[in-house]
Design brief:
single chain; 4-stranded antiparallel sheet; 296 residues
Amino acid sequence: MGTALAGLLAALGVAAPRASGPAAPFDLVFEWTVGGNQDLYLVGAEGGTPRRLTTDPRVDALPRWTGDGERIVFTSDRAGNWQVYEVDAKGGSARRLRTNAHREWQAEPSPDGRALAFLSNQDGPESLYVMDLASGSPRMLVRHGRRTGLGNPSWSRDGGRIVFSTNWAKGFGIHLVDVKTGAEQPLTRAHPTGCEPRFHPNGTRVVYVRRGGQGDQSQLVEHEIASGREKVLVGWPALNYNPAYAPDGSEVAFTSNITGEWVVYRQRLSDGHAWRVSHGGGPARSPDYRPRRGQV
């Protein structure tokens, strides 16, 4: 690491790269390209070398834990188109959750394990669906128009709401939808651009990526749902993406190219101190914390 970069990271409160950071209370899964192949990796609460979970030669991406912390749902193009799969946290063969010729991706299981939120273009425009996992029956929850792109659905811990991004208006904005009624409300204006929202564990706020007007940089911003107040959690002079809260809300994991490569970091929210999670290899993205066992 160059002296100038080391100084910048030190000024930002980022610990120097090392084999492991401080003891983390939760496991972390993320996508990582090693040897030219993008797979899912799991790093334990004690830190250390991440363990490889998938080995397919095609792309595995966008991992999300199931509410019981036993499995990981992800997206892969291993069947020739983007489809949703599931793999045990201990490893083993992946299981396909839906089988069709459509693009289906960016899936997240509900905290109680009974439903799956995902994006699909099965009826034309990309739409947000919720599928009952017991019956396999999907229900369209949000559609905004033929040229609209949606993104990154995230459940509230009580399973009653989903936050997501949409470019229905100019640019991308963050919206909230009631799972039962379909009632929807915007949380942010379409400009500046917002994407990749994730719910805080207490359900009162979300973190999202704000990029509009930032040039070749982006911020991770926390938005209070009731008041609309916002504060910047990560404002490094870089592209910062893929935020996720720890289950106890004490820290966030995210991806940044502050070093010139895509790296996964964790940041403690009490003082802004950050640690690097991935080292070497290729791009690492899309971290997600393992839920507390028995939280649902």
